[in-house]
Design goal:
Order of helices and strands: EHEHHEHEEHH
Number of helices: 6
Strand content: 5-15%
Largest sheet: 5 strands, mixed
Helix content: 25-40%
Shape: elongated
Number of strands: 5
Structural class: alpha/beta
Oligomer: single chain
Radius of gyration: 17 Å
Strand order of the largest sheet: 3-2-4-1-5
C-alpha cells in the first residue's frame, strides 16, 4: 500500500485495520489488469468491502502505475507490489498487507535449453542466491528466495 509522500499512513497491521483504512480512505486505486489487479479485486470481494469501495476506486491502466497515481494526487491510497512503489519519490510505502491477506509473487528463473551462454546464465542464477544480491533485492522491495 502507498500514500502520497508526507501524508498520514493508515494502520494496516491487521486485516480489520486494513479494511478500515480502505473504507476510511477518500479514494483508492490499483492497476486493474495483471496478477496484482486480479488478486486485489478478489481480495476486496472476500473481505466484503468491494461494493462499499466501488464509488471511490479508480481502476488504472498499466501505463499509470498505482504509486505514480498516488504521487500525482489521483488517489489517496494505491495498492500494488512493494517493488512497484519504491521507485516513486512522491509516494511512500505504508507497508505490506497483513500476512493472512498478503500475496507473495514468486519469480522463478531457469536457464533455457537453447541458451547461447548457459554457463553465464548459471553463474547469474547462482549470484542471485548470494548475500550481496539479497541486499539489492531487499532494497528494491523484493524478498530473496
Amino acid at each position: 500500500m502507498a500514500v502520497k509522500k508526507g501524508a498520514p499512513k493508515p494502520d494496516i497491521s491487521t486485516t480489520e485495520a486494513f479494511k478500515r483504512a480502505l473504507l476510511d480512505a477518500k479514494s483508492i486505486c490499483y492497476v486493474e489488469q495483471g496478477g496484482t489487479g486480479i488478486y486485489l479485486k478478489g481480495l476486496l470481494e472476500r473481505l466484503g468491502i468491494a461494493e462499499q469501495l466501488k464509488a471511490k476506486t479508480k481502476l488504472l491502466p498499466p501505463s499509470n502505475p498505482a504509486a505514480h497515481a498516488v504521487a500525482n494526487g489521483e488517489a489517496a491510497i494505491g495498492m500494488t507490489q512493494i517493488s512497484e512503489i519504491l521507485p516513486y519519490a512522491g509516494a511512500e510505502l505504508v507497508g505490506p498487507f497483513p500476512a493472512e491477506i498478503g500475496l507473495q509473487t514468486p519469480y522463478p528463473a531457469a536457464v533455457g535449453a537453447g541458451a547461447r551462454e548457459p554457463e553465464a546464465a548459471k553463474a547469474f542464477l547462482k549470484f542471485l542466491t548470494t548475500p550481496a544480491a539479497a541486499v539489492v533485492l531487499k532494497a528494491k522491495g523484493l524478498e530473496p528466495g
